[in-house]
Each structure stands twice: as structure tokens, then as C-alpha cells.
């Protein structure tokens, strides 16, 4: 009888990939994660895992959004990657499967950098899985794809179906609430300059019973020009990489709220939710539904009250 193959050793280079691997029940196979990975925490979490990447840019929250934007723009102009792979940490981790992304150079280390690092230090055949989801359904498909690579095809399908079912339950409630009207929603993913979210965010807004403004499903976010006319009923501010206290502090020093004084305003944890293409987009939808239709989703507002805030 042939010996069973050794369990595959997994390295992840973005936070959503780490969350996907853990959702599949494979935390014990992780041998390294990115510097941005921070969930799950506590017993059985990832706190003690080696960090395989480093940032060349300032940490979110350490500078204003305008300063961070200008820093990233300058590095891009000089053709400097915003992140790098720690070659020695990767060598020691010795993974068999590397999960990375080729969607956003600002969010995490890119596919080409991971390929170069793997070629340089691993010295053996490794499998590289690259994720580039653009719509919400792509995220659930990625779970199935990652599970298939790791030998858990049926389990991954069941996990993805579970997330789809939870999304569907929220969407059905939102459809009932939206019978009285669909509020126009502006989803801000960066404060200065003002950037409006695209990709999967318009999907989430529609599922939450709203109408997405400016951002287009499946397309990257766009800068909102100062003279661009838009009249949202709801504004949700959830900058990429910013937790809730950081977002609230920056909004307190910003004139942004003067731009749409008649809208209902919310701030949310954009680091943990909304901007990560992983399992917690389910919670992101629930938070969004509580913002778009607060009366109909008072229960979800209470459930997630630590992660978002209505602004007076």
C-alpha cells in the first residue's frame, strides 16, 4: 500500500487568503503568513506564525490618508514595490503551496514578487495560487478553488455554500425592506483623496437593499472629483487598512462630512471588513444592511456594533 502523502505546507501572502485557509479548517498547515494577517486571533489563531512579508510604506493610521496616498504615489512613480518578501523567513518556512494575489499592488505583495522569491530561496517545486476576485461571487469561487488545490474540494464547496446561504438570508430581508425605497449609498474607501469603492462593494450595496453610487461592480474604485455632483442618502466610510478608531479620528479632522450634510453617515472598520476578499464579507454585508436599513436590521446593528458607528 502506498504511503499517504505528507500534508501540504501552506504560506499565505494576503490576509483574506489566511482567513480562507482557516475557514477550511487548515490552520495547522499554515507555516507562514503576511505581515498584515491578523485574524483569527487567540487560541487556534495565527498570532504565533512567522511573517513572510514586510512593508516599505508607513503603517495605516501612522499618517493621514493624504500623506499615505502621496507616499504610495511617489513609490509607484519610482517603480518601488510597496511590499517585499522576507526571503530568509520564506526559506525557513519551506511551504509547498503559496497563496498570493494579482489584483492590487497597494493592498499586498504581488504575484511576480512571490514568484521571484519562491524561485530564489525554495529550490523545489512549489504551487502558487493567485487570487484576483472582482465580484462577490468570485470570492466564494476562490474558496472552492483553494480547497481543491489543498485536497478539500467537497469541504470547500460546503463552506462556500454556507457563506452564500448567509448572504442570501440577509439579501432576502433587505429586499423586503427595500420595497419602501432603495437609499442611494456612497461607499468611501479612502478619505483624502475621496475614493469610491468598486469591485464587490456595489454587489454588497445592492444585496443590502441600496443603490450604489459612482462605483461599478467588478471595476476598481475611482477618485471622486471635487466638482462631481452626487447626492447620497447614506455614506459609509471604511478606508482600506484603517480600523474604526483610526477612521473616526481622521473624519473628525476632515471637512468631508460638509460635502453631503443631509446624508446619514457611518464609519466602519475597513481593515477587518469590506476590503478583504474573504469570509468576512458576509459580516460586511450585515453591517452594510444595518446602515442602509437601520430599522429593519436593528438586530444586526447590535450584533456588529463594535465594528461600525453611526455619526451624529
Distance between the termini: 68 Å
CATH class of the largest domain: Alpha Beta
Tally of separate helices: 10
- In CATH, the topology of the largest domain is named Rossmann fold
Describe this structure in words.
The strands form 3 sheets. Strands 7, 8, 9, 10, 11, 12 and 13 form a 7-stranded mixed sheet that branches. Helices cover 36% and strands 15% of the residues. It has helices spanning 15-23, 65-77, 87-93, 111-121, 136-149, 153-177, 201-207, 244-252, 281-292, 298-303; strands at residues 10-12, 30-32, 53-55, 83-85, 97-101, 127-131, 184-190, 195-196, 211-212, 222-223, 234-237, 264-268, 308-311. It is globular, with a radius of gyration of 20 Å. The longest helix is centred in the middle third of the chain and has 25 residues, at 153-177. The protein has 312 residues and is an alpha/beta fold. The chain folds into 2 domains: 10-132, 3-Layer(aba) Sandwich (Rossmann fold); 174-311, Nitrogenase molybdenum iron protein domain (Rossmann fold).
Write the SSE topology:
Layout: E1 10-12, H1 15-23, E2 30-32, E3 53-55, H2 65-77, E4 83-85, H3 87-93, E5 97-101, H4 111-121, E6 127-131, H5 136-149, H6 153-177, E7 184-190, E8 195-196, H7 201-207, E9 211-212, E10 222-223, E11 234-237, H8 244-252, E12 264-268, H9 281-292, H10 298-303, E13 308-311
Parallel strand pairs: 1-2, 1-5, 5-6, 7-9, 7-11, 11-12
Antiparallel strand pairs: 3-4, 7-8, 8-10, 12-13
Amino acid at each position: 500500500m502506498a504511503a499517504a502523502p505528507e500534508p501540504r505546507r501552506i504560506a499565505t501572502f494576503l490576509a483574506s487568503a489566511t482567513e480562507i485557509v482557516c475557514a477550511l479548517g487548515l490552520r495547522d498547515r499554515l507555516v507562514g503568513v503576511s505581515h498584515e494577517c491578523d485574524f483569527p486571533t487567540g487560541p487556534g489563531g495565527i498570532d504565533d506564525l512567522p511573517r513572510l512579508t514586510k512593508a516599505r510604506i508607513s503603517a495605516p493610521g501612522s499618517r493621514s490618508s493624504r500623506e499615505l496616498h502621496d507616499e504610495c504615489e511617489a513609490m509607484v512613480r519610482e517603480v518601488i514595490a510597496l511590499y517585499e518578501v522576507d526571503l530568509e523567513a520564506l526559506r525557513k518556512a519551506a511551504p509547498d503551496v503559496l497563496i498570493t494575489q494579482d489584483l492590487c499592488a497597494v493592498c499586498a505583495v504581488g504575484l511576480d514578487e512571490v514568484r521571484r522569491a519562491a524561485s530564489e530561496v525554495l529550490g523545489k517545486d512549489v504551487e502558487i495560487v493567485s487570487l484576483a476576485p472582482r465580484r462577490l461571487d468570485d470570492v466564494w469561487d476562490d474558496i472552492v478553488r483553494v480547497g481543491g488545490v489543498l485536497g478539500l474540494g467537497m469541504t470547500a464547496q460546503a463552506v462556500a455554500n454556507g457563506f452564500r446561504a448567509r448572504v442570501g438570508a440577509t439579501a432576502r430581508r433587505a429586499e423586503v425592506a427595500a420595497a419602501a425605497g432603495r437609499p442611494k449609498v456612497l461607499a468611501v474607501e479612502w478619505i483624502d483623496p475621496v475614493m469610491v469603492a468598486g469591485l464587490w462593494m456595489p454587489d454588497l450595496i445592492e444585496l443590502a437593499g441600496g443603490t450604489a453610487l459612482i462605483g461599478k461592480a467588478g471595476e476598481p474604485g475611482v477618485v471622486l472629483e471635487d466638482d462631481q455632483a452626487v447626492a447620497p442618502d447614506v455614506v459609509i466610510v471604511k478606508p482600506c487598512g484603517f480600523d474604526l478608531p483610526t477612521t473616526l479620528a481622521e473624519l473628525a479632522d476632515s471637512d468631508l462630512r460638509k460635502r453631503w450634510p443631509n446624508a446619514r453617515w457611518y464609519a466602519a472598520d475597513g481593515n477587518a471588513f469590506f476590503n478583504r476578499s474573504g469570509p468576512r464579507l458576509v459580516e460586511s454585508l450585515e453591517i452594510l444592511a444595518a446602515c442602509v436599513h437601520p430599522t429593519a436590521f436593528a438586530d444586526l446593528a447590535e450584533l456588529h456594533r463594535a465594528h461600525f458607528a453611526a455619526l451624529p
